[in-house]
Amino acid sequence: MPNDQLTDIGACVFDAYGTLFDIAAAAAHCKDDLGDNMAPLAGLWRDKQIAYSWHRSLTGDYIPFWQVTQDGLDYALAALGLDGDPTLRQRLLDLYFKLDAYPEVPAMLKTLKDAGLKTAILSNGSPEMLKAAVDNAGIEGVLDDVLSVEDLGIFKPHFSVYQMAVDRLGVEAKRVCFMSSNGWDAAAAANFGFKVVWVNRFKQPTERLPGDIITQLDTLASLPDLLGLG
Fold this sequence. Notes:
Layout: E1 11-14, H1 25-29, H2 31-34, H3 38-59, H4 65-79, H5 86-97, H6 105-114, E2 118-123, H7 127-137, E3 145-148, H8 159-169, E4 176-180, H9 183-192, E5 195-199, E6 215-217, H10 223-226
Parallel strand pairs: 1-2, 1-4, 2-3, 4-5, 5-6
């Protein structure tokens, strides 16, 4: 898509998990223990983490995302017959708490900040999870804010989550460029009114959901060029 579709941007807001931080990193670091179960565990863990967050939003039974993350892992471990090893469980959780950032992320964020754009994370993650990941990646200095749904008590894709970014950053929705690797999150943010770039790291098909996404990228490395900053 041409760059003129992303002019007059006042803030760049990023989902965290799968967008800035590698959600498969915890399982990958335990490859020797997991063997052929590495990829199935990472996928099932993520699927249940998301599904449980949706369920709790719909039922009004909010708990912090860190507990949702543990519940998703416990299901995945049980499904793969790995729930008898508490040491493995704790190691996976410790690694997830400080997920690796994707390699292009620090330089990309610095480019945006140097250009005068506001930058922020908007995530389901619990504040302590997000702080640990941000600190581990060394990107705290290139973020204006780190926004957690814990302040609201409901998970994405509820519109109140996206409104929180508008309110906290003081930038109207149409001037917010929002990035997510999750197709459902990208669609919801676009339906809310953000200008959305879907970071389709996992080569997924387009979701059958309302919301017009501006374009999609394979990684965040080319985001500055899309914004005319290259």
